[in-house]
Amino acid sequence: MSRPLWKESAAAISARVRAGEITAVEAMDAGWDGPASLWEHDVHAVVHTDREARHAAAEAAPARGLLAGVPVLVKDNLCTVDYPTTCCSRILAGYHAPYDATVVRRLREAGAVIVGKGNMDEFAMGSSTEFSCYGPTRNPWDLSRVPGGSSGGPAAAVAYGLVPVALGSDTGGSVRQPAAFCGVYGLKPTYGRLSRYGLVAFGSSLDQVGIFARHAGDVATTFAALAGWDEYDATSRPAPAPDVSNWDAGVTGLRFGWPANLWANGVDGAIVDALERSANALERAGGTRVPMEFLPGEYAVAAYYLVATAEASSNLARFDGVRYGLRSSDATDVRSLYVRSRSEGFGPEVRRRILLGTYALSSGYYDAYYLQAQRARTRIRREYARAFESCDFLLLPAAPTLPFRVGEKVDDPLAMYLSDVFTIGANLAGTPGLSVPVGVTPEGLPTAVQLLGPQDGEGALLRAARAIEVNGDVARLPREHEVEASWPGKR
Amino acid sequence: MRIDRDEVRRIAELARLEIADDDAAAVAGQLSGVLDFVATLQQLDLDGCEPSTFAPADAPPREDVPGVRGLDPFAATAAAPESDEGYFVVPPVVENVNP
Question: What residue of A is the nearest CA neighbor of B79?
């Protein structure tokens, strides 16, 4: 029997759809009838979909384009006209956006089929996908563990084989950390490179749409399909997007920074081992290791939780029971309408962050907190710029731990925040980052490393990811043997 | 920096949120913990670091030109909990003052 369609790369699927060998409907049904029929119930990666809408989208998709017939799951904070957009929050229950996000429109123009909306932490605030009003997503490698977050649904769906590509958003690591926990690739591009138009705002100066895939080449192809200036996003980068078509060109002559002081303490041994193996793979492929010191990530976390929450407190002011979603039924005047609707609609972590951001911006505290965080942001940007004077990209962990247990950090905000210690700096600096899966532990959990580059440095990150992919032991599909045992699946 | 329950209530008022009395102490503890952590920024040498907002210097945000794309009032109010002929409906804002 030939390789089942749901295991194929986006590149292989689109080539076969363009050649007329398979249809977009067949490509999409392969994921739903195969792995999803067995695993979606337990993993819970998808929050909005239905068979009719999926099939309508697949039948309408053009059989041409970079992503012809490729099924794609998008995070529930990206606006879509054919599915609800709720940010997995009660306050947006039932909301249907009147337009597609620019990245969604570009996916469709490239031939992709949007199959539904992925689960997430409410308003993208979290690192475990436990703060969803629809209930948590679980890690397909181990159902007792979290998939990471906040884009845990899209990451898990790519990992278990529902779709070859998914979109998330990354404000402080929300693509890269779940990619690491789920054993897939996760790219946060340069700030402004993918349009934010139609991405529900959390921290506008940090938010960036990101890409999940099981192959480095599929990340490159999706990036090429989505990148580019958008007049509807005021912060869109006008300069042409970097060419990533040479993602398979190898790393000969590239220098990678090796800031080992960052993982001297508090990083899981399996991740340190993955770093060594990745560095060896890069060196075998012709790359050069450049040892260096780097500013500890805790400072970035501290600055981030002031900047991001301040922006969130402002952005989320629009959810007031007037324009969309939930309206409290026991409001008596406008003021109580705001207070009741927001208090009934927002979950605990969103409330915490709004309170923290409101505090940081409030009279008497602005200079001590918000302004100081903005100055720290300048320092962190300089730190990155300095590092990239002596290397083409940095190699470091994506997260300090392997996937943690469901419930382990849900009542300890600071512990949860620190799971983003290696990812947050790139959001403050506006620079790109890519999580790369590097094998699995003897216990069967995925390990990963992260590559960080300078602005518009996506090309080198993808070349390095490919070099590690070729020279490493990447295990991509946690459930393939179980799904194959029951193939062709059950409806 | 310690935040107490009264401070939580003051912030909640500014943010238009209700915090139940039973929750205020827990929220105060969690916020205090985060603020203690962010105080580590004081150890960072910020000499010569002006505040930066978001746009990288090489890509300033475009001018905020109105009318790039608009929604007609009926589409814009379609998802509102209550609307009437393209307007959002809210409870009375101005109190009825007898003459």
Answer: A324
Tokens of B36: 């203690």
Confidence (pLDDT) at A489: 40
Q: Is the peptide bond before A150 cis (omega within 30 degrees of 0)?
A: yes
Q: Give the type of residue at A463.
A: R
**Separation between Cα atoms, residue A369 and residue A367, nearest integer Å:** 6
Quote the number of domains for chain B: 1
CATH of A5-297+377-486, one of 3.40.50.970, 3.90.1300.10, 3.30.70.1150, 3.40.190.10: 3.90.1300.10
For A153, A207, A272, A428, A458, the CA distances from A186, given in Å and listed in that order, are 13, 15, 19, 18, 12
Which among B18, B38, B81 is the nearest to A343, CB-wise? Answer: B18
Interface test with B, best of A87, A375, A383, A456 (most B CBs within 10 A): A375
- Residue range B51-66: mean pLDDT, rounded: 73
What is the 3 state secondary structure string of A332-372? CCHHHHHHHHHHHHCCHHHHHHHHHHHHHHCCCCCHHHHHH
Residue A289 CA to residue A300 CA, distance in Å, equals 25
Give domain limits for chain A. 5-297+377-486, 298-376
Specify the amino acid at residue A179: A
Task: List the domain range (segments joined by +) for residue B24.
Answer: 5-43
The residues of A that are catalytic are 75, 150, 174
Interface pTM, i.e. ipTM: 0.92
Q: Which of A334, A362, A379 faces B49 most closely, judged by CB atoms?
A: A379
- Tell me if B97 is assigned to some domain: no
Contact A327 B81 (CB under 8 A): yes
Q: Give yes or no for a contact between A451 and A433, defined as CB atoms under 8 angstroms apart.
A: yes
A455: closest chain B residue by CA: B56
Q: How far apart are CA B19 and CA B21, in angstroms?
A: 6
**Cα dihedral angle (A167, A172, A173, A174), rounded to 10 degrees?**
-40
CB distance A234–B62 less than 8 Å?
Answer: yes
B10 domain residue, yes or no = yes
Nearest chain A residue to B31 by CA: give it: A356
- Quote the tokens at residue A329: 């039924």
Q: Identify whether B15 is part of a domain.
A: yes
Q: Cβ separation of B50 and A382 shorter than 8 Å?
A: no
Local mean pLDDT, 10-residue blocks, chain A (491 residues): 85 97 97 94 97 96 96 98 97 95 98 98 97 98 97 97 98 98 97 97 96 97 97 91 96 98 95 96 96 96 95 97 92 93 96 96 90 95 96 98 95 88 97 96 94 97 95 71 53 33
Binary contact (B75, A373; C-beta < 8 A): no
Q: Enumerate the residues of chain B whose CB falls inside 8 A of the CB of residue A191.
A: 54, 56
Cα distance between residue A87 and residue A319, in whole Å: 12
Secondary structure (3-state) at B60 = coil
Q: Which residues of B touch A318 (CB under 8 A)?
A: none
Query: Across the interface, do B78 and A98 touch by the CB < 8 Å criterion?
Result: yes
In terms of Cβ atoms closer than 10 Å to its own Cβ (0-12, 13-18, 19+), residue B99 is exposed
Helix A269-284 with A458-471: angle, nearest 10 deg: 100
**Cβ B56–A192 below 8 Å, yes or no?**
yes
